[in-house]
Amino acid sequence: MNRINKPSATFAILIAGAIALAGCNAATPAAEPPLAGAAIGGDFALTASDGRTVKWGDFAGKYRVVYFGYAFCPDVCPTDMQRVAQGLKVLKASDPAKAAKIQPIFITIDPERDTPAVVGEFAAAFSPDIIGLTGTPEQIAAAAKAFKVFYAKGEVVEGGGYLVDHSAITYLFGPKGEPLATLPTDQGADAVAAELGRWVN
């Protein structure tokens, strides 16, 4: 069973507040997004499936859905990514203009196994719109630190496989790279679509 750890105690308080606010009536936006002003995110230089270097600034002007996980994850990562993809599909059907403003991004926390080809194949399995990114262990560590993501390699099991403990948070960032909210992937595609529709203008 994959072990998914919660964020640090300090950050958990922030996320809990975000989730509480996100549970309000989606038809009436709050005065400001739940994560407004939070120190989450920042520049990175990672590698896409085609080998090109991708930086955070490359997405300027786009709303960004960001998820850190890994391709060999047996349960939570594929479930969350599927719900992100489905949520975007639901939003596209109801408001294609808003959906077109969003770029979903999957960043691995397992660069040892998730090569550009592997991470690209994993992302594409859910949607051709999702960009899969990997990098060196140092690049991944720097990106995870900037985005307040915890991860740690678990024990190696027979056959050489292993799990990776990590926080499972789906972030939504604004067109300037500012953190806006977390997406309720645990509540399904419709909830994800509603939250996206609430904050994407």
Overview of the structural elements:
With 201 residues, the chain is α+β, with helices and mostly antiparallel strands. It has one domain: 3-Layer(aba) Sandwich (Glutaredoxin), CATH 3.40.30.10. It contains six helices and nine strands; from the N terminus they run αβββααβαβαββββα. It has helices at 9-22, 76-94, 96-99, 116-124, 137-146, 189-199; strands spanning 45-48, 53-55, 63-69, 102-108, 131-134, 151-156, 162-166, 170-173, 179-182. β4 (102-108), α4 (116-124) and β5 form a beta-alpha-beta unit. The N and C termini lie far apart (39 Å). 41% of the residues are buried. Residues 1-29 have low confidence and may be disordered.
What is this structure, in a nutshell?
This protein has six helices and nine strands, in the order H-E-E-E-H-H-E-H-E-H-E-E-E-E-H.
Q: Provide the CATH top-level class.
A: Alpha Beta
| Rg (CA only) | 16 Å
Could you list the spans in which at least 5 consecutive residues all have pLDDT below 50?
1-29
| N to C succession of SSEs | HEEEHHEHEHEEEEH
CATH superfamily: Glutaredoxin
At the fold tier of CATH, the topology name is: Glutaredoxin
Number of strands: 9
Instruction: Give, in spatial order, the strands making up the sheet with the most strands.
Output: 2-1-5-4-3-8-9
How large a portion of the residues is in β-strands, by DSSP E? 15-25%
* DSSP helix fraction: 25-40%
The SS-based structural class is alpha+beta
Number of helices: 6
Task: Name the shape in a single word.
Answer: globular
Q: What is the domain total for the residues?
A: 1
Please state the average pLDDT score.
88
- Tell me about the largest β-sheet: 7 strands, mixed
Q: What is the rounded distance between the termini?
A: 39 Å
CATH architectural name:
3-Layer(aba) Sandwich
